[in-house]
Amino acid sequence: MRIKEDEMKVLICIGSSCHVRGSRQVIETFTRLVKEHGAEAEIVLSGSFCMGACSKGVSVKIGDRVYHVKPEDAEDFFREVILEEAKK
User: Fold this and answer.
1) What is the SS3 string spanning the chain?
2) In angstroms, what is the C-alpha Rg of the chain?
3) Cα 76 to Cα 42: distance, rounded to the nearest angstrom
4) Using CB atoms within 10 A as the burial measure, which of 14, 20, 34, 46 is most buried?
């Protein structure tokens, strides 16, 4: 999938360590929220393998920055970080 200039790519780790820490739930939450916000054209979710920071939670990369998200914090992270980044 090619990313347009106006799209923001969000990489979510699906490696074994992040999978155990809840990457599936994080992906499901992000997918639901992208649809709820009608942001399918602006926010592209993609799976990724290990980003090298497995012990802190599910690794989520936006641009050059790697964040660590727990499933129970995914909604807040989406609203506070992903939506804000998408507005830039």
Assistant:
1) CCCCCCCEEEEEECCHHHHHCCHHHHHHHHHHHHHHCCCCCCEEEEEECCCCCHHHCEEEEECCEEEEECHHHHHHHHHHHHHHHHHC
2) 12
3) 19
4) 34
Tokens 């980003």 sit at which residue?
Answer: 51
d(CA 50, CA 65): 14
54: left (phi over 0), alpha (psi -120 to 50) or beta: alpha
Q: How far is 44 from 59, CA to CA, in rounded Å?
A: 16
For residue 35, give both structure tokens: 């649809």
